[in-house]
Design brief:
The complex is a heterodimer of chains A (about 130) and B (about 140).
Chain A (H helix, E strand, L loop, with lengths): L6 H25 L16 H9 L41 H32 L4
Chain B lengths: L1 H28 L16 E2 L2 E6 L4 E6 L3 E2 L5 E4 L11 E4 L4 H34 L4
The chains are: A mainly alpha (about 130), B alpha+beta (about 140).
Amino acid sequence: MAISDLPIFSMLRTRMNWHQERQRLLAENVANADTPGYRARDLAPLDFGRQLEQASGQLQLALTAPGHFSGGGATGGGFPLDRATKSDVRPMGKAVNLEDEMMKVAANQMDHQAAISLYSRSMGLLKTAIGKR
Amino acid sequence: MDFLKSMAIAASGLKAQSGRMRVIAENIANADSTAQRAGGTPYRRKIPTFRAEIDRALDAQTVGMGRMQLDQSEFRTKYEPGHPAADAKGYVKYPNVNPLVEMTDMREAQRSYEANLNVIGATRRMIQRTIDLLKA
């Protein structure tokens, strides 16, 4: 059993992947802050309910031969984009609000850190359970 | 790794903004560069342009400097009959550089540069935290 088979770890892993993907989009937005005609993009918030469903009550395909792929793998970069990102276009044709983006970068960093702390705490719980200090 | 992509994108932003800074420096330095010959045209202000580039290797939109454009506005003229670049009527053409505009542009470039630096710093801390998981 891999460590990511536990629901909490797989959820945190998805969460961290999401933050990583979001960081990439935010970096794009900041880098293109002075590009005329560029529209800021962002990820849609992670759906906690659906994630929970996927992590706990998931029906797996039966593996009848060792060469089979398992059905529900870890999600890669396939997070949906937030379609509702609105930004004002300034007179020079620039549509990125630098302050907003910096706030998002800071928030993203803090949330990522929270996920990391939860991950290491859960790991600590496991270690306690197997009697290692 | 995606975090390294974020860093590379922010680095492209740094590069573009420093390129813009170079053009602004050129404009300010040449703010009083008149022509060498009588009646000639002086230095013409340059305008840096940006465009989003699709980086295939990174699978992301980085930023790059586009083609340099020349400012087509009128030159300033001064009446200086004794100047070597003066035309037949005694007027000298000075570059169409407005130091005030260049200064505001410079501030904006500086601000964008700092924003990109901050993104790199934030990404670096995120990587650091992830690596710290191994220590726990």
